[in-house]
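are you around this afternoon, could really use another pair of eyes. what follows is a protein written twice so to speak, once as letters and once as structure tokens for the fold. i want to understand how the tokens follow from the sequence so walk me through it. anything you notice is useful, everything is just below.
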Amino acid sequence: MTILVTGATGAVGRHLVAALVAGGEQVRALTRKPQEAGLPAGVEVVGADLTDPSTLHADLFDTVDRVFVFPAEHGVDEFVAAAVNATVDRFVVLSSLAAAGEFSRDIGSASYTHHLAVEQAVTSRTDDWTILRPGTFANNLLAWAWTIKAGAPVRAPYIHSAQAPIHEADIADAAAAVLTQDGHSGKIYPLTGPQSLTRIDQVAAISAAIGRDIQLLEISPDEFRADAAQYIPESIIAMLLDYWSDTVTEPDRPRPGMRDLTGRPGRTLEQWARDHRADFGAA
């Protein structure tokens, strides 16, 4: 039988496809640009757009018994309905720790609202689901990449706030474990990196990985808002500032999901930074 991976050429999806193929699984990868997919040999690449139900052809689900659901901005509800109608009933959902609503800052936030809707698109239609809720993606730190490559100071608010950033490959490993093992139906796994690190520590980890000192300049929330306004919607800016503000006094704590699913802690942030040296301008 076949595992269908949506978001197959994204940061998590690409690692997930590679892990599944390495484990001998039959993989069908859904991507909008199949000619540019660059996925491992043996993967069946299918051209379709998760956000556009009209591109989801009837044969997309042929022989599929398991689906990895990427939390696309639109179209997930229609996609899941089509999959269930095609008798697919096992789903692994990529969500967000914000969807748990553990903190008042999360309730009503853009991430909470969106990811909860994605989860409900699945849980309202089948009982055979597993939800992965990662916290902060280490990949979010790529927002600093152009600054670091230019040799300019990193400008950030709340530099004493602490998160536990998770490597995208660890999320993929967790998803591969759930997709290929039994016993995870109806379970929700919070996922984080292995360490709670201040933003000062995060810059230091990148610095160590690329072998170059990086200056960190603390700015005010208003300065961040002015810097980010042309790139990021206000709802996301507000969510980020609330998150960073809260995690000054209540740092993110590492969660056990990675060890529960893979038997090991996640990769360190310095390992992530070494894997992304080129993104930060290092040879």
